[in-house]
Design brief:
The complex is a heterodimer of chains A (414) and B (389). Chain A has twelve helices and 14 strands. Chain A is an alpha/beta fold. The chains are: A alpha/beta (414), B alpha/beta (389).
Chain lengths: 414, 389
């Protein structure tokens, strides 16, 4: 698994008090590091059927009023077989944004029709350095600095794609693409259909989204929930340098419009990726850690929270199977289905908001298709349905934390 | 090119008449110079001359095609009232001169993109009546296989990019097509048509800014029929000079009911766009029907106004007068031409009515481009492959 620069195991081995000792009056201010486990206070971020989400109360978890399982500290019998998709035979190490850049550069070298358009992607090098150096190499006609008009330049990218160009449209922050929603929904998604197949729209729309470090409500949007019902588009979310490069390349080569969701906090992940050329399947989910007891479905940044919680869970004697779903539209029900048939329990951990998020659709899809295989209702942990606050403490409570994941697994596996 | 298609049609004109008369309709390209009805008004550029080069063949062709367009729209009106066409149906009668004049000035490599009032422009780009009526009635033989409808006519091989329902959204698309033309060094231009209502959309100015900045061969054409659905121009726009709205972008105001003025302006615009970047054309035109078939068109304007325009400025009447004054055909011949057109339209409608509706499986085709690299199936997918194409 990728080494996380933020100090992965900070609270993993910290002793967790049994969670019925929540005292809503004294919240210990959690540490700023988002990947550490808070040892004292728990905010449960969501439930699978929307029962009372009382802030800090224990009533939610005790929904089925079953006795608490007092865990025995069991040493992990299985080594953490993070099914790393990297081949470590011959590779080079780089950061996630460099992996994206590499993928982009390789595709631009390969196909002269590929061009990039967005704000500050050219001379500035990209606000997250994904397009650094490309303008010098490919020139101003292929790496285009646009004025600040998302609606128009997204429309222009789509119009150019109708003629056969393959533009990559970058939203400096995914949230800004809301201004281009009409172009993405009506033109990008639907032109292939309404023209009876005459025009294809091979665009890639990409950009960072998700909750960052106190960026405020408008810059912490998770747009996958808004875009998921647009017919005709594909959505993928990258989470490691390996799949970032692979998905970028596959998205550029795809004839369908693809929206590639990156995360603001993941750009500095370091990993070793192969030297040889590879792409990742756009519709495939990634098996991060095979297991037996429970299937945990996640994507993007929450993968790391889940893996952190997995360490704790392994110490407690559980064997979670962690799948990074990667493909947000369409869902890889094949991989997910095989996992559900094996473990019979599902926990979805996402960064979307509770209402109308990816988790909500995934819950419905799993219930419809694999109902007979489930031993417990699908549980979904999502962010709170609130605008992301600025204050660090509040911001941390809007997002699912590893401790909540641990508690949820414990509850599901009773 | 539109004219080459017409030459085959002119042979069709002479056929039924050969028995009826002795006079020979001149189908040669005898050059004729025609003065436009009104001078051009220019903004930041020198207006083109009022004398338009044309030919007798072109004149007759203008008449025939415009009469065909008019007849097609009237027929669509009756089909809508007979509930064979459903949903929204926006008719172009009165505005034919814009479609025909533009077509005469450009080639099929130049792109046209327009909004929902697209039936006649589709026809001008080389679409057939059968495709039009089939699509309007939702049949398989329609240009979009029945899945688009009135507002989604496209013809890729003649660079006709539609056919768009959302007001104003086609202009950034059009500028994108112009960008691709510049990227591929094609020496072609894009005409992005929009209405006076859409002229107030922000995305137009955004797209115009980028086009001017990047020197794109984009020509923005405002088909000003003075009403944005039910709202008159003066109630929607502070400045009615749409050709001046580009500010730093040159503009030209054209009498949109005069096909030759339109032709001259489009030729001028094409030359300008290839050399100096974007330009705005404002076509002063008028629609006889309401905004769409659900709008009677008389609640916000008087019948006198409509009939006044029809008497004084009708584009087909103008061409008819030119044809007669240049002695290219007699009244009777033109009437016979119109009768033949009527029959042609009726035949196309009958043929389209016989066409089947799309198969149910068509519901799911063309949502994604399939067969590319990898596929996604339902829960029972057997195999997953990632292949480098």
């Amino acid at each position: 698994m990728s080494a996380i620069l933020q100090g992965a195991g900070a609270g993993a081995a910290a002793a967790l008090t049994p969670f019925n000792s929540i005292d809503s009056n004294k919240f210990v201010a959690p540490s700023r590091s988002s990947l550490s486990v808070r040892s004292k206070s728990y905010i449960v971020a969501g439930s699978d059927d929307g029962t009372n989400k009382s802030f800090g109360s224990s009533s939610l978890i005790a929904r089925r009023s079953q006795p608490l399982m007092i865990p025995n500290a069991v040493t992990a019998t299985k080594a953490d077989t993070a099914a790393s998709s990297t081949s470590l035979k011959s590779g080079h190490e780089l950061l996630l944004y460099e992996a994206l850049q590499e993928g982009l550069e390789e595709e631009m070298d390969r196909d002269p029709h590929v061009c990039v358009m967005g704000e500050d992607v050219g001379h500035y090098g990209g606000s997250y350095k994904v397009t650094k150096g490309l303008a010098d190499k490919f020139g101003d006609l292929r790496v285009l600095d646009t004025p600040i008009c998302e609606n128009a330049f997204t429309g222009m990218g789509i119009g150019a794609a109708m003629t056969g160009l393959r533009p990559i449209i970058e939203g400096m922050n995914m949230g800004f693409l809301l201004l281009a929603f009409n172009q993405i929904s009506n033109n990008c998604g639907m032109l292939h259909y309404t023209s009876g197949g005459q025009f294809t729209i091979p665009v890639v729309i990409r950009g960072p989204g998700g909750v960052g470090r106190q960026l405020g409500a408008e810059h912490s949007q998770r747009l996958e929930s808004y875009f998921q019902s647009i017919p005709g588009i594909q959505m993928v979310a990258c989470s490691t340098p390996y799949n970032a490069k692979g998905l970028m390349k596959a998205a550029i080569r795809s004839e369908n419009p693809v929206i590639l969701f990156e995360h603001v906090l993941l750009y500095n992940l370091k990993e070793s990726i192969p030297d040889e050329e590879y792409i990742c399947n756009l519709e495939e989910a990634e098996m991060v850690r095979p297991g037996e007891h429970i299937t945990i479905l996640t994507y993007s940044r929450m993968r790391y929270h889940v893996m952190q919680a997995a360490k704790t869970l392994v110490n407690k004697g559980y064997d979670p199977e962690v799948i990074d779903i990667r493909s947000l539209k369409p869902f890889d029900l094949h991989t997910i289905g095989n996992s559900v048939k094996k473990t019979h329990r599902v926990l979805i951990v996402e960064e979307c908001m509770r209402t109308g998020g990816i988790g909500a659709s995934l819950t419905a899809a799993i219930n419809e298709n694999f109902h007979d295989y489930l031993d417990a209702p699908v549980m979904c942990l999502s962010s709170q349905d609130v605008p992301t606050p600025y204050a660090g403490t509040l911001e941390e409570w809007t997002v699912v934390q590893p401790a909540q994941i641990v508690t949820a697994v414990e509850q599901l596996c009773q | 090119m539109a004219l080459s298609r017409i030459s085959s049609r002119s042979n069709g004109i002479t056929r039924p008449f050969s028995a009826a008369f002795n006079r020979f309709i001149s189908t040669d390209s005898t050059p004729i110079t025609i003065e436009t009805s009104l001078p051009f008004t220019a903004h930041l550029c020198d207006p083109p001359s009022r004398s338009v080069e044309s030919s007798s063949q072109e004149l007759l062709d203008f008449f025939r095609t415009m009469a065909l367009m008019r007849r097609m729209e009237i027929a669509a009106d009756s089909l809508y009232k007979a509930k064979l066409i459903r949903g929204f149906c926006h008719l172009y009668d009165g505005q034919e001169a814009v479609a025909i004049g533009m077509e005469a000035a450009i080639t099929k490599k130049d792109a046209i993109i327009t909004a929902y009032r697209d039936h006649c422009i589709f026809l001008g780009r080389g679409g057939s009546l059968h495709e039009v009526f089939s699509e309007l009635m939702g049949r398989q033989a329609g240009c979009s296989k029945g899945k688009g409808g009135s507002m989604h006519f496209y013809k890729k091989d003649s660079s006709f990019y539609g056919g768009h329902g959302i007001v104003g959204a086609q202009v950034p698309l059009g500028c994108g097509i112009a960008f691709a033309q510049k990227y591929n060094k094609e020496e072609a231009v894009t005409f992005a048509l929009y209405g006076d209502g859409a002229a107030n959309q922000g995305q137009l100015f955004e797209a115009l800014n980028i086009s001017a900045l990047w020197d794109l061969p984009a020509i923005l054409v405002c088909e000003n029929n003075h009403y944005g659905m039910g709202t008159a121009e003066w109630r929607a726009a502070k400045s009615p000079s749409y050709y001046k709205r580009g500010d730093y972008v040159p503009g030209l105001k054209v009498d949109g009911m005069d096909a030759f003025a339109v032709k001259q302006a489009c030729k001028f615009a094409k030359d300008h766009a290839l050399e100096k970047g974007p330009i705005i054309l404002e076509m002063d035109t008028y629609r006889y029907h309401g905004h769409s078939m659900s709008d009677p068109g008389s609640t916000y304007r008087t019948r006198d106004e409509i009939s006044g325009v029809r008497q004084e400025r009708d584009p087909i009447e103008r061409i008819k007068k030119l044809v007669l004054s240049h002695d290219l055909a007699t009244e009777k011949e033109l009437k016979d031409m119109e009768k033949e057109i009527r029959k042609e339209v009726d035949d196309a409608i009958a043929k389209a009515k016989d066409c089947p509706m799309p198969e149910p499986s068509e519901l799911f085709t063309n949502v994604y481009v399939k067969g590319f690299g990898t596929e996604s199936f339902g829960p029972d997918r057997k195999e997953v492959k990632a292949a480098l194409p």
